[in-house]
Specification:
The chain is of the alpha/beta class and 940 residues long. The strands form four sheets. A 13-stranded parallel sheet has the order 12-13-14-15-16-17-18-19-20-21-22-23-24. It is built from 43 helices and 24 strands. Strand 18, helix 38 and strand 19 form a beta-alpha-beta unit.
């Protein structure tokens, strides 16, 4: 009776005449209704009226009659019965279905089908188990600027999980394995951080279809799952952050195949489910802005590599492979990528004489193994057809790289015998839930290798048509962004395949370097090696970074090439006057080979840049999760031994070395020794120290090792009197930058010793403590600095009348100046007049930039100063901006407009704070037009 009463409206509207008559017959048979009552109902023409009549009759007959009606409804219209049952049964029934879903998911994740896989494709019967093939990996937490901000273990990542979370990594770094590991941990209930999730869905984005529900059913459950799509989507909305989606392979995801997943990632607020997305490095730019937490998969540690090999191989095979890695140094770098470790293990199972040394050789061995081992499957096909198909497979891979396609259709295989490539394992075929089959290489990296192998064949072919075809591909690679990102792996494997091909690629790099486009789009690279400098414009700074990236690419290609010593002279020409940046937080192994095999290239480099960070975990890579390792590493030095090892046996001299020490709270004796070893290897040294209180008191020891120091910057770092005395004892210094030094000047320190820097060409003092007495001492000291070309003094607000003494010293002795900046230095009208007299008397031939901004000078002061400016023939920019708004006198504006017409090289004049009226501006513009000048006037 309760069922009928609670669903009365639904029953009346939805039963239909056929169901009503069938139920009426059952009720008649059970003597619940009479013939007259049945006839009355059957004669009713409107089915809803017939339903209403029968329901009210039965309700009046009592609960037994109602039970008979309900059983009859279940027999004749089960769909309606079960649909209505959801409205009247308890929520426990719904929870039962959800519980079943949870158990089904856990069953999938703990099954052999999910945890066991063929690393070389299903045709090669080598099986790995996730339980043994997975090793703990190191993750780097990254900020919005793509900088590493600290290490994470998997457990820490899950505990600090933010939504959405993006896992970034290069091919083969273990992104898929990591997400599968999370699914297995949830299913096994062995991770406390995952217990908050009711549901975990692992989805491969390479094979999505329809919506989220269809994809989940296709990949994890089965079609016509008991929970319908509507209820499934309601569950996602209701469970919110208790649902975790593990989305693997965004780099191969096609949003039109499943728009709901794209919305879940980019408009997560609509779903509110937690999402972890894995993608390759080159694709992260598509979703980086949406990530609340971004983590990069780091290199596989040596210990984890050994563990993986021992877990996968028998003891004998494992020992053999580990011995090979020990003997072949480059393999240590290669083995930092889990995919290559697995490939090496798989090949070792079938090729006991395998001896890898580079990525290309590893893939080459794999390629040949797959083709040769499966020849028996295509023995009925002629050798000519087999070779043609394999050759066309290279074309397919190469065209796919340039079209950014990794899925291929039947029409793409028009000239290829499908069975040859499928039998060899070069291609895999996917047909499930598809109208047309899709073909893929077993891994994107393998397609890149196959394409590189083919490009090498074309470029080194004896047939002119093939060579032209090869060069036609190279013509599509014309920016550094193409080289460093889009086609990097293609070029890497091409260089690794042939010595002649390497020379051709090197010519391409030389041409690209000569015609380098430094526009913003070509410099929007994921890897950023930009070090800001106040004296370098943004465009110049980007250009320097551009060179760094190109140089590192060339070093990679050299490392991969088949004969390093034979290419030394070819590479030497390229590296002449180039700069390279070495990230001491993570020094790649290829730099070791570069230092070892190309000493001549190092000698011709224009600049080598090294950045050291004191806040970086000292020296040794940490075996994550191991507290003991953390304690041991804390005893290590802050200057990585790996960086020192590059310079240890170096007997020649670098042309120029630029070293940055940043955020050092401590510097140990061995660090100083290491710095000395590095610094003494350069003929010219630039040292930049920033925010490093730990260097205070030890700077003297550091500088004593820097015999060829020419450029020193000390920023936001306190100094002792001994430190300052050592600075002024560095008589070879050409440029000295001191910024943010607020400690009181010490007797016998920097101010007293500035007179010793007789070779200085540039001096920058910014926001340092200097009173009037200090200024007088400084003024006497700089009289000795007769080679000075650049003088910057900024924000010396306590200097008082001392600036007058400094200006007088400048006027008396410093006739070689090219740039003068006296910004916010209490310059008075008297000081300006002295400076003007100096300009008029000395006729500074080379002065190009003059900045006297943020000072309080009167109209009379500026008026006396403007006339001498006529003698500064090469002046490019001036800045007379005022600290406070003021109205210049009409006579001053008139004089300014006259002077501006005489400065032929002037490009910009800044006078912010000067309040011009329309007459003033008209006067200046008329003068500008009459003398046809192109300078820019900046005013407020």
């Amino acid at each position: 009776m309760e069922f009928i009463e609670s669903n009365r409206v639904q029953l009346i509207q939805r039963m239909g005449m056929i169901t009503v008559k069938q139920i009426a017959d059952d009720l008649l048979a059970c003597h619940v209704m009479s013939y007259e009552e049945v006839n009355t109902i059957a004669c009713e023409r409107v089915e809803q009226e017939a339903s209403r009549m029968m329901i009210y009759m039965i309700l009046n007959k009592g609960s037994e009659a109602c039970n008979i009606l309900v059983k009859s409804l279940e027999k004749h219209n089960p769909f309606l019965f079960h649909d209505l049952q959801r409205y009247c049964t308890t929520r426990q029934v719904e929870q039962d279905k959800l519980n079943d879903l949870i158990q089904d998911l856990k069953y999938v994740y703990l099954s052999s089908a999910f945890q066991k896989y063929h690393p070389l494709g299903s045709d090669i019967d080598i099986i790995f188990d996730l339980g043994t093939a997975y090793t703990d990996i190191l993750l780097w937490k990254k900020d919005i600027h793509n900088s590493r901000k600290g290490q994470l273990t998997l457990n820490v990542l899950l505990e600090e999980l933010k939504n959405p979370c993006i896992i970034e990594g290069e091919a083969g770094k273990g992104k898929t394995t990591l997400l599968k590991r999370i699914a297995v941990l949830w299913a096994s209930e062995n991770c406390s951080a995952l217990k908050k999730f009711q549901f975990v869905f692992f989805i491969s984005l390479t094979s999505t279809r329809g919506g989220i529900y269809e994809t989940v059913c296709d990949q994890l459950l089965f079609e016509q799952y008991p929970i319908c799509k509507q209820d499934f989507m309601k569950m996602l909305l209701a469970q919110r952050q208790r649902v975790l989606f593990l989305l693997d392979g965004y780099d191969e995801f096609k949003p039109p195949n499943c728009p709901e997943i794209e919305v879940m990632i980019k408009e997560n607020h609509k779903f509110k489910n937690v999402v972890i997305i894995a993608t390759r490095t080159e694709s992260i730019h598509k979703i980086r802005q949406f990530g609340s937490l971004i983590a990069e998969i780091g290199d596989l540690s040596e210990e984890s590599c050994k563990k993986l090999i021992k877990n996968v191989l028998t003891n004998k095979l494992a020992d053999g492979l580990l011995n090979q890695f020990t003997e072949v140094t480059p393999m240590k770098n290669l083995m930092k990528t889990p995919l290559f470790v697995i490939i090496a293990c798989a090949i070792q199972m079938g090729e006991s004489n395998f001896h890898p040394s580079t990525q290309t050789l590893l893939f080459s061995t794999l390629y040949d193994l797959m083709v040769e081992k499966n020849r028996y499957k295509t023995k009925e096909i002629t050798e000519n057809h087999i070779m043609l198909s394999i050759s066309h497979c290279g074309d397919l891979a190469l065209d796919g790289i340039f079209d950014q396609r990794f899925d291929f259709q039947s029409e793409d295989l028009a000239d290829i015998k499908e069975e040859v490539l499928l039998a060899s394992g070069l291609l895999n075929k996917y047909t499930a839930q598809r109208l047309k089959p899709t073909y893929r290489f077993f891994h994107k990296s393998f397609q890149e290798y196959t394409a590189g192998r083919k490009l090498c064949e074309l470029l080194t072919s004896a047939q002119e048509t093939e060579v032209k075809k090869g060069y036609s591909y190279l013509q599509k690679i014309n920016t550094i962004s193409d080289i460093a990102n889009t086609y990097f792996n293609l070029l890497l494997y091409t260089c690794g395949s042939s010595l002649d091909a390497t020379r051709i690629i090197l010519d391409l790099l030389k041409r690209t370097d000569q015609h380098r486009d430094i526009s913003g789009k070509n410099l929007a690279l994921e890897r950023e090696y930009t070090k800001k400098s106040e004296n370098i414009t943004e465009k110049e700074d980007l250009k320097r970074t551009d060179k760094d990236i190109l140089a590192e690419c060339v070093i990679n290609f050299f490392y991969e090439s088949s004969s390093k010593s034979a290419l030394s002279r070819d590479f030497e020409e390229f590296f002449c006057d180039k700069s390279i940046f070495i990230n001491t937080q993570n020094i790649p192994t290829y730099f070791s080979d570069f230092f070892r095999y190309l000493p001549n290239c190092l000698s011709v480099l224009g600049l080598i840049k090294l950045d050291f960070f004191g806040n970086y975990s000292p020296n040794k890579e940490i075996d994550h999760g191991n507290v003991e390792d953390l304690q041991i590493s804390s005893l290590k030095t802050y200057i990585p031994e790996k960086a020192v090892s590059l310079f240890f046996n170096w007997n020649q001299s670098f042309r120029s070395l630029e070293i940055t020490l940043q955020d050092f709270n401590k510097l140990k004796k061995r660090d100083i020794k290491y710095l000395g070893k590095i610094c003494c290897s350069a003929a010219s040294l630039k040292l930049h120290i920033s925010n490093s209180a730990g260097i205070t008191g030890t700077l003297k020891e550091v500088l004593e090792t820097c015999k060829n120091l020419e450029d020193l910057t000390v920023e936001s770092t306190p100094l002792t009197v001994e430190d300052e005395q050592q600075i002024t004892a560095m008589t070879k210094l050409k440029t000295l930058h001191i910024r943010d030094l607020q400690s009181e000047n010490l007797e016998g320190g920097l101010i007293d010793g500035i007179k010793n820097l007789v070779n200085a060409e540039g001096l920058v003092l910014d926001r340092i403590s200097m009173d009037e007495d200090d200024a007088k001492k400084f003024a006497e000291g700089i009289r000795n600095l007769r080679k000075l070309r650049l003088l910057y003094m900024k924000h010396l607000t306590a200097i008082g009348d001392g600036i007058t003494y400094i200006v007088r010293s400048v006027s008396d002795e410093l006739s070689e100046l090219e740039e003068i900046q006296l910004v916010n230095c209490c310059i008075s009208s008297d000081a300006v007049e002295i400076l003007g007299n100096f300009f008029e008397k000395e006729h500074l031939q080379n002065l190009q930039h003059l900045d006297l901004s943020m000072n309080c000078v009167t109209s009379d002061g500026w008026l006396s100063f403007l006339q001498p400016l006529i003698s500064l023939k090469k002046l490019v920019s001036v800045d007379f901006s005022s600290k406070q708004d003021w109205v210049p006198a009409s006579l001053l504006v008139c004089k300014l407009s006259q002077v501006l017409t005489t400065l032929n090289y002037l490009k910009e004049i800044k006078v912010t704070g000067w309040k011009f009226d329309c007459h003033d501006l008209g006067l200046i513009n008329d003068a500008k037009i009459n003398c046809r000048k192109q300078f820019q006037l900046v005013y407020s």
